[in-house]
Amino acid sequence: MALKRTTKCIATLLGIGVVALSARPAAAQGLMLDRFDPAPAGDRFFGVESPFVAGPSTLHLMVLGDYAHNPLVLRNTSDNSKVGSVIKSQTFLHVNASLALWNRLAVNAEIPIGLQQSGDSPNGVASPSGGSMGDLRLGARLRLLGEYHDAFQLAVGGYVWVPSGDRGDNTWVSDGKARGMPQLILGGEGGPVVWSIAGGVEFRRQQQLEGITQGTMFKGGAGIAVQLGSHREWQIGPEGNIAISTLNSVKHNTNAEAMLGIRYRIVHDFEIGIGGGPGFTSGIGTPDFRGVAMIAYTPEQRSDRDGDGIFDDEDACPDVPGVRSEDPAKNGCPKSDRDGDGILDEVDACPDEPGVPSSDPTKHGCPLPKDRDGDGIPDDVDACPDVKGVASSDPKKHGCPPDRDNDGIPDDVDACPDVKGVPSSDPKKHGCPPDTDGDGITDDVDACPFEKGPPDPDPKKHGCPRAVRVIESAIVILQQVQFDTGKATIKHVSDALLDEVAGVMKDHPEIKKIEIQGHTDNRGTLKLNMKLSQDRADSVEKALVARGIDKARLTTHGYGPEKPIDDNKTDAGRQNNRRVEFKILEKAPKLVPADHGDHPHTDHAQ
Predict the structure, then answer these.
(1) What pLDDT is attached to residue 64?
(2) How many CA atoms lie within 13 A of 117 on its CB side?
(3) Least crowded by CB within 10 Å, which of 19, 141, 482, 574?
(4) CB-CB neighbours of 339 under 10 Å
(5) For residues 413 and 430, what is the distance between their CA atoms, to the nearest angstrom?
(6) Is the separation of the CB atoms in 200 and 184 below 8 Å?
(7) Does position 212 have pLDDT exceeding 70, yes or no?
(8) Are 448 and 507 in contact (CB under 8 A)?
(9) Taking 90 as the threshold, does the pLDDT of residue 469 lie above it?
(10) In contact, 200 and 216? CB cutoff 8 Å
(11) Given strand 511-519, what is the order of strands in its sheet?
């Protein structure tokens, strides 16, 4: 491997943090390599600040471990092959404290302690080892809009880093100069979802690290999570952070990381959490993986709407000030409940008689009225108080006997009380099955309820047409259209059949287009058969138009002997192949009246 030994080595990123290094470690100049800034104790995310201030005068404490893998790697300039990791692993312990004041202002302090750093010392570049103290961070935040549980909150804040860290050779834990960052923070809580967005400009001294400019940067982060559990003690969601140099921004001074975090509130005041995720850029200090783990003392911000000192999740009367009780059903409720029915006297319409809740304030807390027949309908509104009945919007029927056939039509006006039916303006048909096709046979016994047909002793044919049937893709004729031999002249014997075909098309306006197909056997020349089949199809079209069918609904096609349905070697087979067929090309949903126009509905079963 030919390694280019020049004053400047150009390194590139393949999923990990990379920087160009000379033989002399740049850390001697002072550089804080770790790009993870933990959010203050009490916030909802690991690295994204929250806009709220958690408490009137509340202390929050947190210890967070931060592990970064390969935050600084040296690569060969000729083929991008890895020379080695200047820093292969880096572990910090962040000690963090926040003080919330007046639910409005929060101040915080954080000190990073480098527990471990190690590397391969590639190409003579010495890797650090052991631990070092980082720069002290001081911060403040002022909430401008929104309360703790509001969907939208707004705050301003900022940090100042005091150059208190170890600035010796190869420490990589301090810039050696003060730096600062003002911030704007948005966030909120909507049901179980919490979110936060923070951004600001970090002002820091400009540094040249082997040709890569480090200096003032725009830093931002965003996170969203869902809270789970009966008390929302679990929280899980992604978050991400980005830092972009405001001076000569290139990939080696741009940082972008993301992680998935899980937090769990052990008890009301203590929380633990873990998170982890990749880095996406080649910015100095961006690892290929970062993992965090924390434990925090952060008193839960529980709501108390009525201000009685009992939190809402334990208060049985969260909107009425009350007193503590060992009975969970009465905890936080006023003592006054003379009848012991669990309904406070101040809203109990019958405070001296045990009763039940009601949406009617005049009945709330009163006993249920009498119900002699036990049908659940009080006697004072039951039209049939001594006979079990069903509810009805008609006061004269409310509580009276039910509808035996369950067709929604009361038995006293149902002409067919034991057979399900439909409404009708005709009292003799009201509640009876419909006769959709109007052939005098009701649908419940009509084998073809959408096609007119005569009675038949065979239940499968009862009410079905004798010669013409409508199926999904065709109008099927059960007889053949007869023509003069070798001609397209329709014999009079087929007049009744075509009358029925025309009648079916009139009864089915949803059939928009049919193709009249002419077919022949295979005797004779193909040219002659094709012409004969087309002529016969055209003759049928003219016959249907003469019977009142719109020609726009018809098209013709002669197929000759191309589509036989039987064996052309026999007389019977050839007879079957000489035929006319009606294929449905276009069809719309059919509007079928439930009772001759009283209650139309759409039928898709044709």
Answers:
(1) 96
(2) 26
(3) 482
(4) 17
(5) 7
(6) yes
(7) no
(8) no
(9) no
(10) no
(11) 468-470, 474-477, 579-587, 511-519, 554-560
In sequence order, the 6+-apart residues with CB closer than 8 A to the CB of 26 are 19, 209, 210
Cβ atoms of residues 16 and 288 within 8 Å: yes
Burial string for 219-258 (b: 16+ CB within 10 Å, else e) reads: bbbbbbbebeeeebbebebebbbbbebeeeeeebbbbbbb
Element (H, E) at 97: strand 82-101
pLDDT of residue 601: 42
Q: Which are the contacts of 552, defined by CB distance < 8 A and separation ≥ 6?
A: none
Q: What whole-number distance in Å separates Cα of residue 330 and Cα of residue 179?
A: 55
Q: What is the pLDDT of residue 209?
A: 59
| Residue-wise pLDDT tens digits, 500-519 | 899 889 988 999 999 999 99
For 535, the 3-state DSSP assignment is helix
448: Cα separation from own chain's centroid? 44
Residue whose tokens read 């008193």: 299
Strand partners, 172: none
Q: What average pLDDT does the structure give for the chain?
A: 82
Strands 234-245 and 254-267: antiparallel
Q: Please list the helix, strand and coil fractions of the chain in percent, rounded to the nearest 5, in that order.
A: 10, 35, 55
For residue 495, give both structure tokens: 């007049």
pLDDT tens-digit map of 161-209: 998 887 765 677 777 788 899 999 999 998 899 999 999 999 887 766 5
Are 252 and 275 a contacting pair, CB within 8 Å? no
CA angle (505, 510, 513) in 5-degree steps:
70
Would you state the structure tokens that stand for residue 592, as one six-digit string?
A: 């079928």
Whether the CB-CB separation of 187 and 50 falls below 8 Å is answered with: yes
**Cβ–Cβ under 8 Å, residues 226 and 200:** no
Q: Are 161 and 136 in contact (CB under 8 A)?
A: yes
Strand partners, 494: none
Using alpha carbons, select from 148, 129, 16, 9 the residue that is nearest to residue 77. 9
Q: How far apart are CA 407 and CA 416, in angstroms?
A: 10
- Which token pair is 59? 């202390």
Q: And the tokens for 304?
A: 């108390």
List phi, psi (to 5°) of 175: -80, -20
376: which residues sit within 8 A by CB, 6+ positions away? none
**What would the 3-class secondary structure string for 384-400 be?**
CCCCCCECCCCCCCCCE
Query: Do the beta carbons of residue 40 and residue 108 sit within 8 Å?
Result: yes
Lowest mean pLDDT among 222-226, 229-233, 312-316: 312-316
End-to-end CA distance of the chain: 79
Q: CB-based burial of residue 392 (10 Å sphere; 0-12 exposed, 13-18 middle, 19+ buried)? A: middle
Strands of 278-335 (E only): list them.
289-297
- Residue length, the chain? 606
Residue 490 exposure: Cα atoms within 13 Å on the Cβ side: 23
Residue 327 to residue 254: CA distance in whole angstroms:
59
CB 118 within 8 A of CB 46: no
